[in-house]
Design brief:
Layout (H helix, E strand, L loop, with lengths): L3 E8 L3 H14 L3 E5 L12 E5 L6 H15 L3 E8 L2 H9 L1 H4 L10 H7 L2 H11 L6 E4 L15 E5 L2 H6 L9 E3 L2 H12 L7 E5 L8 E8 L5 E12 L9 E7 L2 H13 L4 E10 L4 E8 L7 H5 L4 H9 L8 E2 L5 E3 L3 H7 L3 H12 L3 E2 L10 H21 L5
Parallel strand pairs: 1-2, 1-4, 2-3, 10-14, 15-16
Antiparallel strand pairs: 5-8, 6-7, 6-8, 9-10, 9-12, 10-11, 11-15, 12-13
Helix pairs in contact: 12-13
Length: about 400
């Protein structure tokens, strides 16, 4: 049997994983290997992925062992095995165990040293300061400090973990990805709740930038093995998920062009020595007219299929770079295709900006919309039924959790 030039090996099986598998299938007609702990909906009943289940995949020792076993199985099927991480935890595992994995896999990630600067938000904001990037006014709160303390800015405020990886594994009642708090009592309670769990690192306390979901922006980029940005694509957020544990995940994005943002973040990524996929969350602050960065994720975003849907196939840049080493001019997103993961009528109903709502309706009317999991070439009867059932749940969730933001 003839060897393939490459095979994608995708760690995880969520929407992000399926979005990347779909990008590879659209561009190359290839089936991706999805390496996961178990079965979850996005990659179930799919004809474009081949699943490998390792129940303890997220434990370091088992991760290395599983990946080495998988290499033995795949080495005769492809010349190169490209590793793609669908979440921060898998990206960290691949980076920390680079020495063991790199003889067998292509790992398009940043160095361990840079990762330790980027993923700990406390250090990341120091980098922003150094490179002239705008970010919200910030206080670093450490375990043992008094939550009754006077804060350097007024409520409302945002509280989130500095180390999102260890926070991911912490369990406690009422846990959220991030908190928007409106008074001192809720601040004290949140601090106490978080530190009653296994999480012990710093917390980031920030000035809340006013505005609803529609002032958020998301930037995805790909930086090649030579340190050059090959692609940047910006999206304007239409709506976020309001399910408490999923707050901060986007459920609607429309492509948007901003050459000033592209130039600023191209310069930043190249100067810090970034490699691979980058995902950047920004929010427009109407008080001073600046786009302020929240975080830099060291892998493509959960919603990054919006980039492929806008005409900039996410898989293509990785393959052209790491399989064929064919340098190309940087491509900048200029299209305004609509991406969504909630039903059409729900997206329209809950869009909080009237001008943007008109754009959303227009994109639907023009047939310029896409949803990651609804891939026409991968919609068997069972898959379609299960997806439809899942998305119907969103009606109840928005009814229960949606609250207008100021």
């Amino acid at each position: 049997m003839k060897k393939e030039d490459f095979l994608p090996v995708i760690l995880g099986s969520d929407d992000n994983a399926y979005g990347m598998a779909r990008a590879f299938h659209e561009q190359y007609g290839i089936k991706s290997i999805v390496v996961t702990k178990g079965h979850i909906l996005p990659t179930m009943h799919s004809k474009i992925v081949e699943k490998k289940i390792y129940e303890k995949l997220d434990e370091p020792t088992h991760f290395i062992q599983s990946m080495l076993e998988l290499h033995k199985e795949l080495k005769n099927r492809a010349e190169k095995l490209l590793v793609i991480a669908s979440n921060e935890n898998y990206a960290e595992l691949a980076i920390r165990h680079k020495a063991a994995l790199e003889p067998h896999y292509i790992l398009p990630f940043i160095s361990e040293k840079l990762m330790d600067q980027v993923v700990y938000k406390e250090r990341f904001y120091e980098m922003c300061e150094e490179h002239g990037l705008d970010y919200p006014d910030t206080l670093i709160f450490k375990k043992g400090m008094e939550p009754e303390m006077e804060l350097p800015f007024d409520f409302p405020i945002v509280v989130k973990p500095s180390d999102s990886m260890t926070y991911f594994n912490a369990q406690f009642e009422g846990k959220k990805k991030a908190y928007v708090l409106h008074d001192k009592a809720s601040f004290i309670k949140t601090i106490n709740d978080i530190y009653s769990s296994t999480y012990e690192d710093s917390l980031i306390v920030q000035d809340y930038i006013p505005g609803n979901d529609t002032v958020m922006r998301v930037l995805n980029a790909y930086v090649d093995q030579h340190g050059k940005v090959r692609m940047m694509c910006l999206g304007r957020v239409i709506l976020e998920d309001y399910t408490p544990i999923l707050i901060g995940n986007y459920v609607g994005i429309i492509g948007e062009e901003n050459q000033e943002i592209y130039a600023k973040y191209k310069n930043f990524l190249e100067k810090i020595g970034f490699r691979g996929y980058a995902n950047i969350d920004l929010k427009y602050d109407r008080r001073d007219g600046k786009y302020k960065i929240f975080e830099l994720n060291i892998r493509q975003g959960r919603s990054s299929y919006f980039v492929t849907a806008n005409g900039y196939n996410m898989a293509k840049y990785l393959v052209e770079d790491r399989v064929y080493d064919r340098p190309a001019p940087t491509e900048y997103g200029t299209n305004n295709h609509l991406w969504h993961t909630v039903p059409k009528d729900l997206l329209i109903k809950y869009t909080m900006d009237e001008d943007l709502k008109k754009q959303v309706i227009n994109r639907f009317d023009q047939g310029e919309s896409s949803s990651t999991l609804y891939y026409p070439k991968d919609l068997g009867l069972i898959r379609r039924f299960k997806l439809n059932s899942f998305y119907k749940d969103y009606y109840g969730r928005f009814e229960k959790y949606f609250k207008l933001k100021e």
